[in-house]
Amino acid sequence: MEEKKLVTFEDDVFDLDDLLKTTAEVLGEGSLGTSYKQMLVGKNKTVVVKILKNVVMEEEEFKIKMDVLGKIKNKYVVPLRAFCSFSSVEKLLVYDYMPAGSLLARLHGSVGSSQTQFNWDHRMQVALSTAKGLAYLHVVEDIVHGNITSSNIFLQKENENEVSLSEYGLNTLFHRSRSLTHRVTGYWAPEVLESREFTFKSDVYSFGVLLLELLTGKIPNHASLDKEGVHFSDWVGPIVCKEPKVELFDMVLTRGHNVDKMEQLLQIAKDCVLISEPNQRPSMHNVVSMMEDMLSRQSSDYNSKGYNSRRSTKTHDTLSGITVDTL
Asked: Do 145 and 79 share a structural domain?
């Protein structure tokens, strides 16, 4: 351990010893490794340490990859603060700790908790900021996220609903044949289940599943690979075709009489989860445009009814229009 060096980015002033001498709180074991919460003594800083095992990428390639990820700076992406190689197969990554918690906890909390207050406007903000984060990774950084789940999306602040994405760009570190639980593969596009190759279009599919999760209030792993092996999109497809569609949506949402708005977002989700033709799925920057158009139409409706509502700024529908500022 003493010979290992922690590589930090920018002005972060802590080392491996700072991590090793503090007590770690286990946050959970995800598809790519185990995460720990650690408060750095004397540094006034709390971080998340993620231990990756069974990494197959060569050391030099791994360092280059981490250097790319560590330079990403965007409000919708949780920054990578440091990394360290314990061995050829075991790595350590350090991220900012997000005290407001994950979307998984917010959306699927117990009845009577914050979940009951997680209404349409809140979920729409989460969906849009997630889309912007993904579009930024795709267009500006040319990086496939590869692990979109509600557990990897974190609220930026306790009383706000914009989010940041974590665990981006890590799937290439592992062998394609690794087995994962259904709680992860519920978000995977069918072609990923077959090939284990993650693409921009498979990210779009995963985002579509996330939209369905926000709309239905159901956890994808519970409906994706159940006893009959039904995939989440196959499960929701027949329901979408039935009338009334209100049966599909989370009861928390329907109490606000937002069915028309939810049906619009549902159509975007359906476009994202096209199964047979991945190339016909929209790009994430087009998804951002569709969602902002949808919000603009809603704002116009509110204004026509005498409400004072701020109109959303539309993202340009070209690659050149996708910038750090617009996302």
From this structure: no
